[in-house]
Amino acid sequence: MRIRVLFAPLAFVATFAVQAAPAEAASAVQSTNCPSGLCAQFAAEDAIPVIKSYSFTMPGAGSAAITFNGSLFCASTVIADKVIDLVSAIGTTSSGSIPATTPSYLRHAHVLKDDADHSFDSSTSFNLASTRVINYSSGGSKQVYFRIARLRQDDGTTCYVNGGSFSVIVTP
Asked: What residues does 54 pair with on adjacent strands?
């Protein structure tokens, strides 16, 4: 008994007859690190500056996946336990509070412990890697900021932000 497959060529033709329109490609841009590697430095009594800002161009409406990479090093030179409690986020404004509901919100908290014989300064490091997706309704130049806000920073402590680079992937 012979069986013939008559519909196979039609399936083959149908497979090649449907073609999707080419999609617009995503593009990526990256900032340079902060000059000399140090982005900012602040003691407990200092105002905390904008850590880094970055401008990029959206070709039209779409989304931008924005990543910030850097590190935060905090140290105490005081003979006592000291608290560092900071928050950070990528945002579209250079000032104002950083609510816990902010996308990319990170909290950085640590007690800098004094050792029993006071033989060394206490320090700690935090990874500031942060990512946020922002949807834009139109194209043009866009500005983003990486900011840190203080919840608590005891006297006698100083923090340094190092590295500090943005990368942005734009999708139409």
From this structure: 144
Query: From the CB of residue 161, how many other CB atoms can be counted at a distance below 10 Å?
Result: 26
Kindly state whether residue 145 falls inside one of the protein's structural domains.
yes
Residue 29 in tokens: 């841009």
β-strand partners of 41: 160
CA distances from 33 to 53, 63, 93, 120, 130 (A): 11, 24, 20, 31, 15
Residue linked to tokens 């931008």: 64
pLDDT tens-digit series, residues 68-118:
999 999 999 888 899 999 999 999 999 989 999 999 999 999 999 887 766
Asked whether residue 150 is assigned to any structural domain, the reply reads yes
Domain span at residue 137 reads 47-171
d(CA 41, CA 159): 6
Share of the chain above pLDDT 70, in %: 84
- What CATH number is attached to the domain comprising 56? 2.60.120
What are the DSSP E strand ranges found in 37-156?
38-43, 52-58, 62-76, 82-91, 106-112, 122-127, 130-136, 140-153
In a domain, 125, yes or no: yes
- pLDDT score, position 121: 73
Q: How many domains does the chain have?
A: 1
pTM summary value:
0.81
